[in-house]
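In this supplementary section we document a worked example of the pipeline. Step one takes a protein sequence of length 494 as its only input; no multiple sequence alignment statistics are reported here. Step two produces a three-dimensional model, which step three serialises into structure tokens for compact storage. The input and output of this example are shown verbatim.
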Amino acid sequence: MTLTEMPAAGLSTAPRRMFIGGAWVDALDGAVLETLDPATEQTLATVPRGGAADVDRAVRAARAAVEPGSPWRRTTPSQRGRILHRIGDLILEHGEELALTESRDNGKPVTYASFADIPMAADLFHYMSGWTTKIEGHTIPFSAAAPGSFLSYTTREPIGVVGQIIPWNFPLMMAAWKLAPALAAGCTVVLKPAEQTPLSALRLGELIQEAGIPDGVVNIVTGDGEAGAALAAHPDVDKVAFTGSTEVGKQIVRASAGNLKKLTLELGGKSPNIVYADADLGRAVAASAGAIFFNQGQSCMAGSRLYVERPVLDQVVEGLVAEMNKLVVGAGTDPATQLGPLVSREQLDRVRGYVESGVRDGAVPHTGGQSLPKRGYFTSPTIFTDTAPGMKIVDEEIFGPVLVVLPFDRLDDIVSIERTNPYGLAAGVFTRDLSKAVRTADAMRAGTVFVNTWNTLDAALPFGGYKQSGWGREMGHAVLENYLETKTVITDLS
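The serialised model returned by step three reads:
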């Protein structure tokens, strides 16, 4: 079946259930939520509106599944690895269906989901499957006693029950980023997908079940902020991993204080992208356009603040406007679409509000000339020039296809502005001068710095933020530290 055939046959409109303790269940009170197609504003399906009671039964299922003697705790590292690898294989086998689900539920172009979201989700499970057999402790000499008097060593153990809350911009990929390392470490999980985009997580739950995960190891509770708040505050959750806005991240910090849960947070960004006059300008313009317009700008690491060295400012802006005007706007299910709708009416209103504030503040908008569909949450891509720090569009995360351009003369000019940037998720630099690239990367306080590229991530590379862009890292070997405890054992041999 091809992608163009799938809208009629590939996505069921039947009511969905959530996944708790190995069973597909409704909310205890029978409440439901509608999930909408942002391109048509029509209901795709209903899902349970889980509440605190549903979160509690999911946590209890996860706790039972991580206790000593449970099937999951008896699973060998090699067996865990094979299960994780099988999940990755199943994601690829169902790639077209999952790409369509992402497009219909989120609005993103189905072609982008096919070459980015689906392969990377699968790759996370494949990559993490190799780590299950490499989680090791150490034998450490006891320095305060004669050799042979004590045997001291460390073991690495799963942290326990993990609550994971994921956003709506990359639903399947974020589920993979969260689930794969937690399962590799031997934890059990209660996953709460975004209320706007629950469908791919529920389908992933079916694939996880097919791969042979024991009951209760993965639980998926759908619902709104009530369910997320209950999960963050639950006294029997050992750790919370959250991706989303900085504002909600701070709420989760407060909610987790009851039992001092361990936290990892991947939060917002206002990422600087720097184009020097000596850059390959064709490459820089194309990559910078992709950095802001990919996924409709709904990316925490979107290159939304562009610094251009003054001698090439006009040339770069002209090139960016040309790239913007070439974008094909439409429903994500159309293979020709490059810029789909925003995820919701709320997000559309938010982005439009920022555009209006930029105009009021005196910035000059360059707006894409595409005609927009009459229905759906579509907005025109926009590039602002004549901007300055202090404008909302310059200082705040917009999370839409809106770029602000600022000229610069010296790197120190950028460093001075970025010193007040509360975020530090990503940054980028375009130059042919390697030493200049390294100096600029060193000057950026960001978790990831792209040089002559953007949006090029890999399962083996750690990803996360400085400052208010979060705590901890996703992906790579580093992510496993989020899900493991270290136990020290000291034995007197005398």
